Amino acid sequence: MKAFPVPHDPQSPPDAPPDLRQVVIRHMLFGFGCVFVTLGAIGMVVPMMPGTIFLILAAWCFARSSPRFEAWLLNHRYLGPSVRRWQETGAIPLFAKVFALASFVGSWFGTRYLGAPVYVLWGLAILFVVLSIYMVTRPNE
Fold first, then answer.
1. Which of 1, 47, 88, 118 is most buried, judged by most C-beta within 10 A?
2. How far is the C-alpha of 37 from the C-alpha of 8, rounded, in Å?
3. What is the mean pLDDT of residues 50-71?
4. Are 52 and 46 in contact (CB under 8 A)?
5. Radius of gyration, alpha carbons of the chain
6. How many Å apart are CA 52 and CA 75, to the nearest integer?
7. ∠ CA(58), CA(62), CA(65), 5° rounding?
8. pTM given for the model
9. How many CA atoms lie within 13 A of 137 on its CB side?
10. ∠ CA(31), CA(46), CA(114), 5° rounding?
């Protein structure tokens, strides 16, 4: 993954400072990356909270905002292996698929048991079906 591209305006000299909008976007992506790393690290130790997906999102944000932090994440002893595996193969381990699908079902029934409104149940059902289709279509590791 390459850093967030900074196109040059053909009418400005090549050493002109980057556009303010691009600087703001880069800083926002870096901020999101930090939040995603935090959530991913929490998800690595808290049961039923996904960690890897947040780390993948963090790597994507860092690739476009800070190559140094992307390298840190990819080379991290505990957080990096799952992200590198995803970038190399795009595969999801069968155990992770089964666990995620069971979590979707459990979360939906738990939400129903707690008396969530019907529109929330439908929204969750649609989200879980879309996520399930995506996961099932990924190759097994």
1. 1
2. 31
3. 90
4. no
5. 19
6. 15
7. 140
8. 0.68
9. 6
10. 100
Q: Which of 78, 108, 96 minimizes the C-alpha distance to 140?
A: 96
Looking at residue 92, what DSSP letter applies? B
Backbone φ, ψ for residue 18 (5° rounding): -65, 160
**Residues 27 and 87 sit within 8 Å (Cβ to Cβ):** no
Q: In angstroms, rounded to a whole number, what is the distance separating the alpha carbons of residues 22 and 39?
A: 26
β-pair partners for 92: 140
Contact 47, 38 (CB under 8 A): no
- Comparing CA positions, the residue from 85, 37, 86 lying closest to residue 62 is 37
Is residue 83 a contact partner of residue 73, using CB atoms and an 8 Å limit? yes
The Cβ of residue 24 has, within 10 Å, a number of other Cβ atoms equal to 10
Other Cβ atoms less than 10 A from the Cβ of 5: the count is: 7
Distances (CA, A) of 30 to 1, 14, 23, 57, 70: 15, 25, 11, 11, 10
Residue 65: burial class (beta carbons within 10 Å; 0-12, 13-18, 19+): buried
Range 45-57 average pLDDT: 82
| pLDDT(69) > 80 | yes
